[in-house]
Amino acid sequence: MTRSPALAAPSRSASPLAGPLVAGSLLVLGVLCVALRVPMADALVQGISLTEWQPPAAYPPFAAILFTPAAWLPAGLLKAVLVLGSAGLLALLILLSCRLAGLRARPGPVLAATIAGLWLEPLVQAPLPGLVNLALACLVLWDLGRPAGSLGKGFALGTAAGITLTPAAFVPYLLFTGRVRAGLTALAALAGTALLGLVAFPEASAEFWIRHLPATGRALLRDWPALWIWLVPPLAALLAALRQSLASSSSASMIR
Fold this sequence. Notes:
- The chain has about 260 residues and is mainly α.
- Helices cover about 70% and strands about 0% of the residues.
- Helix 5 runs parallel beside helix 12 (about 230-255).
- The chain starts with a helix and ends with a helix.
């Protein structure tokens, strides 16, 4: 009895250098955060609380409700969490992007992209926004990758937009591509986060939504190189649409 080639072929594994490279990158990045006092963790510990909210431009006051527990951690521990969390979430971002685009996620390219991404801004210069944007981008990718009729599709996207406004750009994408129910769900979730922020921070919420919102748009345009994380979901969705279009064209040609 002969074994099939698929069974006889040895399983492919990641390069033996992958582990040391990832560990070395994390170690050096952690040393930079702790020894060189990368400022975002210190700013978080000092400034984010339910009584004092001094957010970056794109973060509505609702985000303080979620960030407050992080301010209870010692700055050194928080920096370690930021480094390790960034590595894990970056790998998850790549995996979810491949899944949405219909591509196979091979261990080697995923590890290589993770190592390279750890050294891109904002993950090095501003670990906290980098970690938050990675987590929210993963949440958006997961939501976009769910089947069209899934219960609550769009809720995760709208909640992410309530934490930082960048994901709100995907709401028109849902509406224009015919996923009206998901788009309206996202808008409802975003409105719900704004309402919760208004209850917790009435003055800060009024200041943000009435006066700071135009400045937020200008800040996002100015800081676009640090927002490369948010280029990943639309590129994955575009690639998925392109693959689907090519597959439809190929099927139509075969029928003819």
